[in-house]
């Protein structure tokens, strides 16, 4: 799976305006909504926030992947954001988050959802990707980094 199959340039935001976990999730859901990628903003937001309450999706190495499966979208979609400053996300390694990837998918798209999570995790294991992401100052720059590493 290529992330650029589910992520569009219009769904990348640098910097994120929000400065706490709930607000960042809300901002990224709004990015998807503004881009016309989801059919029910409120359902997607409530699903992702409910999933986040069960356990933090701050998985470590500066990455958080809030996600949810719900009827608020018809296909797997992704929004990507970089906070202006690293933020507390209750990550497993105790470190602040520098990149947030939000995924939403319909309940019947479990396979692609899991494939996307795995692809994101593999990218974040690459030092070259993490260094490039850390240097991205604009949405366009971050989009190009993802595109270049998604080959």
What topology emerges from the helices and strands here?
Blueprint: E1 12-16, H1 21-34, H2 41-54, E2 58-60, E3 63-64, E4 67-69, E5 77-83, E6 99-105, H3 110-124, H4 127-135, H5 139-149
Parallel strand pairs: 1-5, 3-6, 4-6
Antiparallel strand pairs: 2-3, 5-6
Helix pairs in contact: 1-2
Give the structure's gist in a few sentences.
With 151 residues, the protein is of the alpha/beta class. It contains 5 helices and 6 strands, in the order βααβββββααα. β2 and β3 (63-64) form a beta hairpin.
Q: How would you characterize the overall build of this protein?
A:
It contains 5 helices and 6 strands. It has helices spanning 21-34, 41-54, 110-124, 127-135, 139-149; strands at residues 12-16, 58-60, 63-64, 67-69, 77-83, 99-105. Strand 2 and strand 3 (63-64) form a beta hairpin. The protein is an alpha/beta fold and 151 residues long. Helix 1 packs antiparallel against helix 2. Strands 1, 2, 3, 4, 5 and 6 form a 6-stranded mixed β-sheet that branches. It has a single domain (3-149), classed as Mannitol-specific EII, Chain A (3-Layer(aba) Sandwich), CATH 3.40.930.10.
CATH hierarchy, class: Alpha Beta
Write the H/E string, N to C.
EHHEEEEEHHH
Rg computed from alpha carbons, rounded to a whole number of angstroms: 14 Å
On the 0 to 100 scale, the average pLDDT is 93
Helix fraction?
A: 40-55%
CATH superfamily: Mannitol-specific EII, Chain A
The number of distinct helices, counting runs of at least 4 residues, comes to: 5
From the N-terminal CA to the C-terminal CA, the straight-line distance is 10 Å
Overall strand count:
6
Named CATH architecture: 3-Layer(aba) Sandwich
CATH-defined fold name: Mannitol-specific EII, Chain A
Structural class: alpha/beta
